[in-house]
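Progress against Task 2.4 (sequence-to-structure conversion) is shown through the following example record, which the project officer requested during the mid-term review.
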Amino acid sequence: MVKKSSVSSQPVKLRRVKNKDITLNKRAKDELAALEDRPIDLTDPDAPEVTDWSTAQRGKFYRPVKQ
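Structure tokens generated for the chain above:
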């Protein structure tokens, strides 16, 4: 099998970011402060409460640890 030498096929090396590497400007800090003061709306229509559990399946996405 012939190996491709294309640059696009090379995997991108990810770098871990630490908290001390993150800096926020004044605008971003103000936006975060405004979000902290805002109450959480539990009646959000984008996330409706599940009231019918009749079709729920227990353990559907559970995968035991391979031994």
